[in-house]
Design brief:
Bound molecules: 3-acetylpyridine adenine dinucleotide
Low-confidence stretches: 1-11
Distance between the termini: 27 Å
Helix content: 25-40%
Shape: globular
Number of strands: 22
Structural class: alpha/beta
Amino acid sequence: MTKDGTNSAVTDYDVVVVGAGAGGIFAVHEFKEKGLSVLGLESGSGFGGVWFHNRYPGARVDVESYFYCYVDPKIYSEWKWSERYAAQPEILAYLNFAADKYDVRGNYKFSTRMTGAQWDPSTDSYTIAMSDGKAVTARVLVMATGQLSEARKPSFDGLDDFKGEWVQTSHWPEHPVALKGKRIAVIGTGSSGVQVIPQLAKEAERLYVFQRTANYSVPAQNSPMDEGRYQDIARGVEDVWRELVGTFSGTRNPRGSARAADMSPEEQQQLLQERWEHGGHTMNSVFTDQSSNADANAIVAEFVRDKVRQTVKDPAVAEKLIPTEYPIGSRRLCVDIGYYETYNRDNVTLVNVKADPIERITPHGIKTRDQEFEVDLIVFALGFDAFTGALDQSNIRNEKGEQPTDKWDRGPKTFLGLMTTGFPNLFIVTGPGSPSVLANMILGNMQHVRFIANALTYMKDHGHTRIEPTEEAQTEWTAHVADAASKLLRLGVENYMVHVNKDDQSRTFIPYAGGLDKYVARTNAVEENGYQGFAFA
Ligand code: N01
């Protein structure tokens, strides 16, 4: 029986890993190291996952590159980043480098989508159907599909009749998109929009930005890499790993140590300015209480609003760009390079689609209620069907024909964000109920993969063929995830991390907000106690 599915309808692997992003690459490597046979499936034509598809101009990480990488002595010292916050092409090159170092290229089938997975309780395995018409069986299925991989598709009336070109930031074409001298529209001003807009403005004859909700954005304060700092980290990678998984976010970002009310207004302003100059997500943790105390939060929000007013020359445009309806950090803070400055350019127009809604796409552009904008190119930066999108699309079925998300209509239910009851041997990497998008994602991926690899070794050593969380453990963890977020201001704000129940408007926060440090302590304890909370057969 071959292992590549080429001359047999059914072949056997210990593990099938879906996804060739940072999580999938590491998973295939770690499982192989444990002596398991592994097949990787990836719908794209190469490694990179989110960094393969989101190749829009300006795409860049918002976690410092010193730590947004495999903090692993096997490969850390062999790579050199050029900037503090690496851009997409460099990250894609890095992930390809890592895939080669980890020797996983030969394990992957690219341009191949998993079209379904059926659990068979009589053999304790999944039969996995693929887009090439073949199928394989595997004991374990690991979904390393990321939490932001299923893009929200543009559903504007008239799009089919548009005579120009349209693209999505989330699936930016691999071929060059002509921008020079074009009239371009961007719809969406989340993290992707905020990154692509300054780049498009430099090339376009005219750029129209269609903003529905203003977002808070702070400067990355990007700079060239500090080679000495990188080498210092390289010399003690294992200690740095231990240090990072003991932090709230898996970074060395400074965090507040006092409540806003414990400081004088002058001290507050001084600290805010320091954090502004440090850059990035540090603005989320200036004061210890800013995520739960509206007054503390308002001090940070007003500081950022003032920066926008100081940067944008036209006061009317500045006011349109300033969020006033929700606390800072309650929707994911955007990190930019020259975003607000872009609105000082003569070729950039901001359109507030809350005041003047988009009615339809016309053959030559975009028609709002009050105006019509002729454009050659439309860039949709509309975000993702976050957390559950990739699982919903994967057609994974248990013996009752159910899908993993079927019982999540009142919010995701998982044990540790890793597994959900009713689906033996199905692991989710960085899933709902884990720190996920609230922490450094590469670290989160590594930590999850190591946990899964150890669990699989434990199963092998004990002759188990089936692992599944208990209902009690899942219920307890789901309640703990809810509790960790119960005081957060962001729970009350519409954003992709909050699940809202339509009937009673009750809310569930999807990722685990207690911090990576607490999460890792819990998973370590589970491991040390013989996988307490999991049932084996
Ligand atoms: O998506 P988003 P994103 N008409 O959901 C608008 C990560 N990421 O791709 O806010 C008009 O944030 C929507 O408007 P509104 C990061 O985790 C990281 O930008 O719903 N507008 C919003 O403005 C991030 O949080 C980086 O009113 C419509 C935008 O589209 C996550 O990905 C870079 C609309 C969507 O914003 C998602 O970011 C990029 C409509 N019908 C992404 N529908 C880094 O920096 C939607 N919108 C590492």
